[in-house]
Amino acid sequence: MGAVRFRRDRGGMNRRIVILGNGSTGTLAANRLRRHFDDDVRIVVVDRDDHRDPEVELLVAIGVMGPHALLPPEDRRLRAGIDFRCAEIGAVDPARQEVCLGDGTTLGYDVLVVATGARPGVPVSGTAPNVFTVGAVGAVGAPVAEGPQAHAAVERLVAAVSGYLLRTESGSLAG
């Protein structure tokens, strides 16, 4: 199946998906969404940690280890075409479709995916049909088990996001 394409909106902008959380489920979600959607959909992952080890970076810099040591484990690598922002998440405003980062900048989105796992909840004011949560079960925020459960949850997420964007594309959602 080919990638899903969308018209650019009236301002000529791409559709935007922001994913909060760069753990294994957030990375899996970002990579599956990137594979599912054409480049007309911009995907940005935000996490306060960039998962690089400063000691390994030093060992590479002085030549003790090769550059391959800087690569994160396979399950933490983002595909080409996915942007990464290392920042604290300040708050989410679904009414304005914005994520406010700890440094004061904001990221606009058409779809927001919250994949912060067992971390404390992201401050989201209100609810919206374009905000999806993946990687947590129940109110306690227990992470989804690795493997088939995580993959199944992400496949449901991809279907839900695709359905939402297709409905907005056809104008069947009030926005």
UniProtKB/TrEMBL annotation:
FAD/NAD(P)-binding domain: residues covered: 16-134
A GO molecular-function descriptor: oxidoreductase activity
The protein, known as: Pyridine nucleotide-disulphide oxidoreductase
Source species of the chain: Actinacidiphila alni
